[in-house]
Each structure stands twice: as C-alpha cells, then as structure tokens.
C-alpha cells in the first residue's frame, strides 16, 4: 500500500528538533534542557508551538517538565536510533489516548443522550448531513468527524467534563489529523456515527454507549493491526 505523505504541524516539527537536539548533545535521563525562552530563540518558533511540542514529548515520556525548575530528559533510550518517534511508539501513544477518550467521551455520550436539547439535535443532524455529503463525494471528512464529536461534549452540558477534555484536546486530535500519515485510517467507523446519534436522539444512553464502544473497538483494532 502506498502511504499518504504526512503533512506535519508546527509542534510536530518542533518535537523532532528537540529530539534531534537531545541526540546531538548526547543527553541522558535526568539532563536538563535549555529553558523555554532559550528553545524559542534556538528554533525560531512561537511559545505556543513549543509548549505543544513539550506536552507531546512529555506524554510519550521523552521529556519531563517540572514547573519552576525546568525541562529534563525523561527517557534516554527512546530516540537513540532515530530522530523520529517510531511507529510502535505512536501506536502505544494512540492506544493510551484511546483509553482516556473512552472514559471521557463515553461519559459525554451517556450525558448527551440524557440531556440533549432539540436545538442540539438539529445541529447534529446538519453535521451528519454534511458528513454524508463529503463521504459520498470522496472528500476529506476529518474536520466534520471532529466536529461531530464536539457536538457530543456540548450536548452533555457538563462544563467540568468539557474543561477536562479541552485540556487534552490536542492529543485527541491525533485521531482526526491522519495518524501514521493516513487520513482515511478510521473510515470504517463512519456507519457508527449515525447509530450513535440515533441513540442520543432517542435518549437511549445504553444503546448510544454501545455504538460508541463499537466505534472505539474498531479504532483500537485498526491501530493494533497497522
């Protein structure tokens, strides 16, 4: 299979530069990296891109950020043979995120089925209609797919749950931005968006949650088999 060339975001490029810096300097676990200000100047990037890169590297245990003290190398063995994070690392990373997503979004699905308003039902119908249209035309559906799941959190009407989700939203976006460089990787979850919505619309939270978990199972199996 010919793989799609991955379009990298700025924080991903910054992550690779930090990994390259660690390797070039032969830093080991416990060694301190330059400060945020110094890294911003070194790489010529914005603070937001750098912080996103650090969050990602911390999530996969390459660095550890200690508030008030600095940035330290967390694992000296994960980058020795490549400046890029290996496919196996990305698989493990995605599966870890999926565990968290199951818990957070699963609860959001349950609450949405119990609390969804008529107005939000119409918004989700319109979202699905656009999803269907883009799918039928063979267009990219990643953005509308992501939007569909945002509607679920909105419908759950729990500000604290949404706040927790927002704190890790950049990590969860990995599922919608072409993991492994393949945007169409999870296309086989498409039918479950409709059945999941049917459960939410009919206020049947058990059915909605069942369909959501089927979707998550497919994603998990696809990641493991890739």
TrEMBL record:
Organism: Paenibacillus glycanilyticus
Keyword DNA-binding in record: yes
InterPro entries named among the record's database cross-references: GntR_C, TF_FadR/GntR_C, Tscrpt_reg_HTH_GntR, WH-like_DNA-bd_sf, WH_DNA-bd_sf
Pfam families: FCD, GntR
Keyword Nucleotide-binding on entry: no
Domain HTH gntR-type: 8-76
The protein's name: GntR family transcriptional regulator
Keywords on record: DNA-binding, Transcription, Transcription regulation
CDD domains from the UniProt entry: WHTH_GntR
């Amino acid at each position: 299979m010919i793989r799609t060339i991955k379009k990298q975001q700025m924080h991903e490029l910054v992550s690779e530069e930090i990994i390259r810096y660690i390797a070039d300097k032969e830093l080991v676990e416990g060694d301190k990296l330059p400060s945020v200000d110094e890294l911003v100047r070194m790489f010529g990037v914005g603070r937001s891109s750098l912080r996103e890169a650090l969050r990602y590297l911390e999530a996969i245990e390459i660095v550890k950020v200690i508030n008030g003290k600095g940035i330290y190398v967390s694992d000296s063995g994960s980058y020795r043979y490549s400046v890029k994070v290996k496919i196996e690392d990305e698989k493990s990373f995605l599966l870890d995120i999926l565990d968290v997503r199951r818990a957070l979004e699963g609860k959001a699905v349950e609450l949405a089925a119990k609390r969804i308003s008529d107005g939000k039902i119409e918004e989700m119908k319109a979202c699905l209609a656009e999803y269907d249209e883009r799918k039928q035309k063979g267009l990219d559906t990643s953005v509308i797919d992501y939007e569909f799941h945002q509607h679920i959190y909105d419908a759950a009407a729990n500000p604290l749950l949404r706040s927790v989700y927002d704190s890790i939203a950049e990590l969860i976006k990995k599922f919608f931005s072409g993991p492994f460089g393949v945007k169409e990787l999870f296309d086989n979850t498409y039918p479950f968006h409709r059945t999941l919505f049917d459960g939410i619309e009919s206020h049947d939270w058990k059915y909605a949650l069942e369909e959501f978990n089927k979707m998550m199972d497919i994603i998990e199996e696809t990641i493991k088999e890739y």
